[in-house]
Amino acid sequence: MQGKAERAMRHGCQAVRRRVKGIATGMWRKDRVSATVPVEGSSRHDSMTAFDVRHYHELGSTNDEARRLIESGAPHGTVVHADQQTAGRGRFSRRWISPPGNLYVSIALRLGLPAARNLELGFLAALAVADAVDALLPRQVRATLKWPNDVLVRDGKIAGILLEQAGDALILGIGLNVLHAPSGVSYRVSTIVGCGGLATVDGTREKLLDALGRWLAIWEADGFAAVRGAWLARAHPPGSSLGVRLADRFVTGLFIGIDTDGTLLLDTPQGRARIVAGDVTVEAAAG
Description:
SH3 type barrels; alpha+beta; BirA Bifunctional Protein, domain 2
């Protein structure tokens, strides 16, 4: 007969250990989660993703706390979770409104990647968020993706992702609207509960880390090609009209896809454009 440990490994069960401890920056609850995630259809099925969750009541920024921990030697898989942030930020250093009731996490990743491959983690993270959101929504509601790593439900942004370098590590910051939609933003937003889902913040975190572990295993086994294919299946369809705000101009064109390095491909009146960074809007169809 199989032992309990072997059965847990095969079925992706989690062993959880909790304790409470205080540190200089405040009180935090530590949840150590170790999970082996079987990857269906992958060429390798033995990847182990271990998450060490430090849960704070309030922080200025989870990314800043993750950076501090990384500089102190925090291992791969360290997760900083705050109930609220007072100085959260998104891409291009924009303020990320962070009231209680939503999920704010930053994950330390020590993957030994060349810098050129860092962009891949944003697509992987978007897929993990989308899978976690889908698991909490009614079956008929499905998350979609917008380049480079926005997650949408019913055309409203439900999550944002921020990747930052910290020495030889990466910080993966994720903000996900669970209960509350931020006010005072210039774009349409959505929440899990507002779209008919049933969720708690801690339960959403567990779904997210499970999905992130699966996608890390797929990516480690099969490379970016598998991630790219899954991302495209959730994105706006080929031929969609997109607008992209660049640093010095606004570009419009038809969505062709993403290149093998994650670069956005658009057909514009001036020819094929490869876009590395920018803000994308989906243009309304004519007629």
